Amino acid sequence: MEQHLPATLGELKKSGYMPRSVKEELRANLIARIRAKQPLFAGIHGYEETVVPALERAILAGHSVNLLGLRGQAKTRMARSLALLLDEFIPVVQGSEINDDPLAPISRYAKDLIAAQGDATPVAWLHRDQRYTEKLATPDTTVADLIGDSDPIKAANLKLDYSDERVIHFGLVPRSHRGIFVINELPDLQPRIQVALFNILQEGDVQIRGFKLRLPLDIQFVFTANPEDYTNRGAIITPLKDRIQSQILTHYPPSIELGMRITAQEARSPQDQARRVRVPELVRLLIERTAVEARASEYVDPKSGVSARLTISALESVISGAERRALRTGDERTVARISDLLEAGPAINGKIELVYEGEQEGPEKVAQHLLSQAVRNVFLGLFPDPEKAKKRARSDAKGRAVPDPYAPVIAYFEDRSLDLLADAPDAAHHTALDRVPGLRELVTALHPEADGEELPAWMELVLHGLAETSRIGRSSLAGRTRFSDMMGSVFSASGDEEGEEG
Questions:
Q1: Which residue, of 225, 249, 273, is where some domain finishes?
Q2: What angle do CA 194, 301, 52 make, to 5 degrees?
Q3: How much is the pLDDT for 389?
Q4: Is the whole-model pTM more than 0.70?
Q5: Rounded distance, CA 222 to CA 75, Å?
Q6: Positive or negative, the Cα torsion across 242, 244, 248, 252?
């Protein structure tokens, strides 16, 4: 494609090229995309009625944008995706540090070159990917990093006086001329550095120390930030916030189903691993519910948020745990279990910021608490409440007694226990579950949609759900989970503690 593009200023003029600003580019290409019924973003879900319309309005208005929201809400991904709204190629003066437009140069270098060579001035073509610049705001960021400063080495090499603007080393902002410039975590930028952005946002130019210089830069600014009440390290100063024309609030998925879709899309598994392990929808639901529980937990700081990275890491951990078991047992293919999720604590620990009470409990206990809450609430949403079912004398509209649907299962554990081994082959795991009378029948009666491969996960959920609602006992031993009657579970736990002390 590039070989057909004009190579000199003269050829560019003959081609009919007309300069336009980056905001005009974004606006025109967005209009074309809207008319073609094409989405603004690919792979970003849950923002169709909220964030996307607000961002489209900001682009159409030519606004700079601040994406404000908790961590893991796709702010950076959206910013990077905006580069797709730029023209595929634009002409620049060859050798220009700041992407000078050949028909509208702003730098001393480009102006001098065009004055010397005229229509023979060489023209290069810049791809849209090269017009996107991203900077993570850190406390050590300087004005020189962003705007620029005099370069003594350049002055010495070119034998120039320090008053000559050709000794300037341009920072990231001028080098982003005619492109998109993103600053992530804006509150982390020191206030005195934020002040340096005033002119470029309001007047479109920069001031570099020691030089009487005005560069009318053409940049689409996008900022990302967490709410100020969370980022204790700093805040967006009011005058800068006032100059950012649109502030758009992001949010977490509005439904569990949408969260499951995002998690499935973002989780990364090697192809052979994906072929070896099937993850039931029930397990995926439990993973997503764990994030919901974390966002509402008294142990987790609500101001920090719980990002989709928790569910993504948890899903990847579940798949890897199931794969490890299959490799050890020799199974060619396996299905993830509830127990695989309950072992995913390490994938959750680092994804939640604990309040004081949570720190007292410890991250491992909090992670297990969140997983237990997820199991309990999903179970209660899919099966009858065991507490209500316990009242066997309950009657229906005709006065007939309604039996407890869990009675056969609970009766089994009155004088025996059941061990589910973490590394048991699938066949042995299924055999163990089938020892419990009425368990399979209970699941198939209430959820006939559960197919043969996923049925054991549903049966396992019932056992964990009954344990969470104190209808049967449960204890965790090395490499196994034991279900028994409530008293047996208490004695078992007591014995384990005594053994540890001994």
A1: 249
A2: 60
A3: 78
A4: yes
A5: 10
A6: negative
Element (H, E) at 415: none
Measured CA to CA, the distance from residue 406 to residue 359 in angstroms comes to: 37
| Distance in angstroms (rounded) separating the CA atoms of residues 428 and 332 | 15
What was the pLDDT predicted at 43? 86
Give domain status of residue 500, yes or no.
no
Tell me if residue 459 falls in helix, strand or coil.
helix
CA dihedral 37, 40, 41, 42 (to 10 degrees): 20
Q: Contact at 8 Å (CB) between 105 and 111?
A: yes
> Would residue 333 count as lying in a domain?
yes
Residue 357 lies in a domain: yes
Domain span at residue 155 reads 2-249
Q: Which residue has the tokens 């049966």?
A: 459
Q: Tell me the backbone φ, ψ of residue 473, rounded to 5 degrees.
A: -95, 160
Is 201 within 8 Å of 213 (Cβ atoms)? Answer: no
Q: Rounded to whole angstroms, how far apart are CA atoms 20 and 296?
A: 48
Measured between alpha carbons, how far is residue 58 from residues 19, 61, 74, 184, 203 in Å?
22, 5, 18, 18, 18
Residue segments in the chain with a per-residue pLDDT below the cut of 50:
1-2, 230-231, 393, 491, 493-502
Written as six digits, the tokens of 348 are 């959750």
Measured between alpha carbons, how far is 274 from 407 in angstroms, rounded to an integer? 38
- C-alpha closest to that of 483 among 424, 437, 417, 436: 417
pLDDT of residue 3: 52
